Amino acid sequence: MTLGQLHRPPGAGHTHELKNWSHSLGSGAVPHKPTKQRVRPAGRTHTKVVYLKVVYLYVRQRLSLQLTGRCAHRLACTMSLLEFLTTFLWILCRQGLHGFSTDVLIKPQDYIPAIIPQYTLPLDRPRFIAKPILDLTTYCDEECARGEAGLSPQDFQEYLSYETVYANGSRTLTTVGVQGINPGNTTSGGWSRKRARRHARHKRHIYGTDGRFSISGKRFLLDYPFSTTVRISTGCTGILVSERHVLTAAHCVHDGKEYVKGAGRIKVGFLVPHKSSKNMTQPDRLVMRWVRVKRTQVPKGWMRGPSDLSMDYDYSLLELRKPHEHPFMKLTVAPPVEDMAGKRIHFSGFDSDRAGELVYRFCGVEDESAHLIYQHCDARPGASGSGVYGKVWDAGKKKWERKVIGIFSGHQWLEVDGEQQDYNVAVRFTAMKYAQICYWIKGDYKHCQND
After folding, report:
1. Where are the beta strands (DSSP E) in 68-113?
2. Nearest-angstrom CA–CA distance, 347 and 324
């Protein structure tokens, strides 16, 4: 980002300016392949003064617009201001007062492994008898927190093998081989959830004051990034990740042992404008248009039985029968939390307590393991499967972009050293998981190596 990007284009309105800010600011990320990027030399003192002055003028203008009612949408103004302030503070902490170059030092990322299919075996037709899980909660004690360090390549091959269910009710199992495993990436590091058990205690999803925003108005609901959020007919949320693919949580289609009721004829709902034929003078209203799914894919790492679920692999990919015409959000390997602006994540979903509304939230990341993101983003049943995203630096395009780094799973109670803590949890996309999902989408692992 340069100082020139801080100035509003001639003739552009406030909404255009907010949109530019929303798409230009974001967090740093680590590229998929090992790269080296030089950090620019420290800027001169007058550059710092100009930068701080522009920051001051922008903040003052935003506050003035909001107080005088000239902002197009108060929620948009507030979100843009908060997003800008936290991003600026993050850059300030990372770069210090020795210069304001926004080229943050980029660390090498583990090479993307190759997921290569070996055998595809036909299975019995699924029964679709399980009850849909709209409110997943697991419990993890010290035993499961210590587990799963030092997984072997055979373990990864088992967990990344997957089942495919087709619209005609047939089912297959595909075993995979994994090539290019980085030895440093075979350990989970930190807490692991190998034997996180289902737990029946009270589920806490709202932390203090409810920090969720209901998105209203066709203008915002049909605009990126909110337009990438879709509804799943089993009661969950999903996110568009290609022209015909939707990511959601595995527990929205499978309870760990059986496929859930409705997963055999699963559909994806899009918000689209609709004009009444009876009164053509009325403005378009938004309705849910449902599209059938061609096939559903679930990793074997999820299928361990309802009493032995692992949130680590709580993700599933749905392929639509035909391409959609909506924008989608790209995937990336989740960067370390330290490389995310403000250490924040965002996601939108169809929470059950706000029927018919799209609900957006953002919050800071409290902790992370190799597989999970721990946070206190407020959420209710129905938000499961929401795409968790952050703004990451795209080294190829040389700009900040929103990218999906995980899937919202549910809630987990942790017991460490006799002390219990509770978090809302998202699946974190490791290089392995990214390689698997990318292969599902593109059908050829070679197209994922340099993605």
Report:
1. none
2. 21
Q: List the catalytic residue out of 251, 324, 346, 411.
A: 251
Lowest mean pLDDT among 23-32, 111-120, 303-312, 414-423: 23-32
Task: Give yes or no for residue 281 having a pLDDT over 80.
Answer: no
What length is written for the chain?
451
| % of the chain surpassing 90 pLDDT | 44
Q: Which of 417, 416, 414, 419 is CA-nearest to residue 204? A: 414
312 is a catalytic site residue: no
Residues 200, 201, 207, 212, CA torsion sign: positive
Phi, psi of 33 (to 5 degrees): -100, 150
Among the listed residues 141, 155, 223, 308, the single catalytic one is 308
CB within 8 Å of 347: residues ≥ 6 apart:
360, 361, 362, 377, 383, 386, 387, 388, 389, 408, 426
Least confident of 92-96, 153-157, 264-268: 92-96
Is this prediction's pTM over 0.85?
A: no
Residue of 62 and 34 predicted with greater confidence: 62
Active site residue 103: no
Which pLDDT value is given to residue 40?
Answer: 39
**What single letter denotes the amino acid at residue 227?**
S
Q: Where are any strands of DSSP class E within 279-418?
A: 285-299, 316-320, 344-349, 358-368, 372-375, 387-394, 399-416
Cα(186)–Cα(339) distance, integer angstroms: 21
Residue 188 a catalytic site member: no
Residue 68 token pair:
């005088």
Given 384, 409, 411, 422, the catalytic residue: 384
Q: How far apart are CA 188 and CA 133, in angstroms?
A: 27
- C-alpha 440/C-alpha 434 separation (Å) is 10
Beta carbons within 8 Å of 79's beta carbon, 6+ residues apart:
22, 213
